[in-house]
Amino acid sequence: MIKEVIKNTGVKVLRKSIFLILMLFIFQSVSYSQDFAKVHSLISEGIDAEYNMDFSLALSKFQEAKNLSPNDLRGPFFEQTIYYWKALLTRNKSDYETFMNLSDKLVEKCENIVDKNENDLDARLYLGWTYTIRAFAVGFMGENYLKAASEIKDGSENLKFVLEKNPEYNDAALGLGVYNYLTSFIPRKLQWLTDILGFSGNRDEGQRLLKQASEKGTYTSNEAKFYLTLLSWREEKYPEAEAYAQQLKSRYPQSPAVWMLTGGLFSQQDKMTEAIDAYEKSLEYNKGKESEIIFRIAYGALSTAYFRMNIYDKASDYGKRFITYLTKDENMNNRLYSIGVSLEFSGDRNGALEYYNKARTDFKDDNEWEKYWLRRLKERQSAPLTKTDSLLIVADNNRAVGRLTESANDYKTLLAAGQTYNDDIKSQINHGLGQLYSKQKDHNKAIEQFKMNLSLNPQNEKWLVPEAYFQIGRAYLKLGNRSEAQKNFDKALDVDYDYDFKEAMDGKIKNELSKYK
């Protein structure tokens, strides 16, 4: 009897224990399911806020997701992206350091998971994606190219692993797509990295993967469209770029960032009036958010647009506003130059000197952009604009905004002046006319004009000689003569003396060759 009681009691206890375990399992499963859905909702809301340049709201959403589900990798991954984008947009060292600290923690967390289960695709995804954006941040900030190369390799290997195991894990396609596309344009000075680390990109594969992410990605669809807009723009496939930009506008009709992207796309096509309207919309939709990043980028873009349209009072006004938002880590000399020149055109030489004299000298040796504009600022400090200088600027601006008839007349005025110009001025006129003929699609005439610079020996504008080879190569490509194009590209690369933008030449050539197969 006692044995029966014990037996029955044991069965009841066992049944109750099994029931409790089952209920606990069900509860945990439901809880996890609810947390997964809630985290997904928070991440999606945060991404939308990020695109609307409301970084504070985005950060709060990502941190809420992280606190809600500490073991979910999505919250900490997207939290770090706030500081990643801010660092890339502003070159702010503080944001960069915060990003690196957060990503260090996430990398450690992901690697611990992978050590226990190498087939954990979520951990592989966020590890690979984090390594990829770390590599771009490190390289962009000019911190350590070897570290950047090592991390982008680690990133690509993890993302490849994810897609090999599950080709439908579409979010992994974004990072791998960006990796493939951008590393296919590694310049000659960094080729040693690809030899040491054994990787190289594939442009076509990069585009395919980005399209996969844009069409099917859960969290990467819109970011992929953003990259595809930029890449199509780079390759001068403007209808394609505008189509992607329009998709982003449909998704985020009041996004300051998307309107800035649209304005830049218009500007690249000489549609300066439309560009200005887009930049103004960006400022309008920034009201209430007061994003300093948008103020800075929009003011800079508007200053450039009005300068190109030869509307110098607005160019200097927006340029001055832009300067107030710059950090000590950002390029400044080109803007100081355009503000100063705008003030000179307005008759204010003293005001111009105030900006010329602010020339920045504390930049890294490999910053070709700042170095070039520092030289131009020193020229402007030493002497006011001459009539020839002014005509060259106006002619260049008219050409840049598609006023080709006005630009041609400006160059005619320069040539009809009867002056004996030195080789620096001659090379600028030849370059300007060559560019003008290219825009008119008279490529044979452009070639003849650029060739005139090959016999010149400019003292300051030395870059216009190798640039002439490059432009001749571009013209031959457009005429369908790849062999002659390559010959001239090789001559551009073979120029052995130092000149402005020398390190950028290889990348420019690769980009041109990629447009014509």
Describe this structure as you would to a colleague.
This protein is mainly α. The protein is 76% helix and 0% strand. It contains 25 helices and no strands. The N terminus is likely disordered.
Which labels suit this protein?
76% helix, 25 helices, mainly alpha, disordered N terminus, single chain, 517 residues
Topology (elements, then pairings):
Layout (H helix, E strand, L loop, with lengths): L1 H50 L3 H14 L5 H17 L2 H24 L4 H20 L4 H21 L6 H12 L7 H7 L5 H14 L4 H14 L3 H14 L4 H13 L3 H14 L6 H17 L3 H13 L8 H13 L3 H8 L11 H15 L4 H14 L3 H13 L6 H17 L3 H9 L12 H15 L3 H13 L10 H11 L2
How would you characterize the largest beta sheet?
A: none
Question: What percentage of amino acids are in beta strands?
Answer: under 5%
Question: Which class best fits the helix and strand makeup?
Answer: mainly alpha
Helix coverage percent of residues? Answer: over 70%
Count of distinct strands: 0
Encode the helix/strand succession as letters. HHHHHHHHHHHHHHHHHHHHHHHHH
How far apart lie the N and C ends?
A: 92 Å
Radius of gyration equals 28 Å
DSSP helical segment count = 25
Stretches where pLDDT falls below 50 for ≥5 residues? 1-14, 18-33
Look at the structure and give the mean pLDDT: 88
Shape: globular
Outline of the structure:
With 517 residues, the protein is mainly alpha-helical.
